[in-house]
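Teaching note: in complex prediction, the entire set of molecules is handled at once rather than each chain in isolation. The prompt given to students was simply: 'Predict the structure of this complex.' The entities are:
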Amino acid sequence: AQSVTQLGSHVSVSEGALVLLRCNYSSSVPPYLFWYVQYPNQGLQLLLKYTTGATLVKGINGFEAEFKKSETSFHLTKPSAHMSDAAEYFCAVRGTNAGKSTFGDGTTLTVKP
Amino acid sequence: NAGVTQTPKFRILKIGQSMTLQCTQDMNHNYMYWYRQDPGMGLKLIYYSVGAGITDKGEVPNGYNVSRSTTEDFPLRLELAAPSQTSVYFCASSQGWGNEKLFFGSGTQLSVL
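The expected output is the structure of the full assembly:
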């Protein structure tokens, strides 16, 4: 069984501020973890993923996430927010023995000028 | 390279009507998925397929049917539409199991009135 909890359905930051979107997961087997971004009226696009190896994962558009097994977390960060980062972000988990991904409820990021 | 293509983009149905949401991908992916996204919620898996001729239920299959006669196409059938099926539907595909990312279509917004 697997599940994802995203803490905070809405996050608002000022342009240039740190972005932190929180994700905790549960998985009965070693997980693969993903962050996807969804812009209005579009499908989801992959930002980054953790499979094995290095626990700090770098993705597109300056985002990165750190896999912390002891905390069952995979939080997404970006040092300096840009207006174009405003979107909805989804964390997803997939067990290494499964093809089905489970998604969190999403976090809407608003960036204020 | 078109990726994952969904049609139609928008549709309004009356209660009790039926329709088919079309999904096709040109990446030769074996794995295909149908998700629904309700406001403020994450994506819920309806059905998935691991190859032509093979389909299986996801979390919320009731009221839907699928078929997979070719690698490229994975249509979703709604029989006897109900207001509870008002949602945005996303088709996705992936190259493989486990750590492979999902490629999403742009979605179908369906209203059942």
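Point out the following to students. Chain B has a mean pLDDT of 93. Chain B has no helices and eleven strands.
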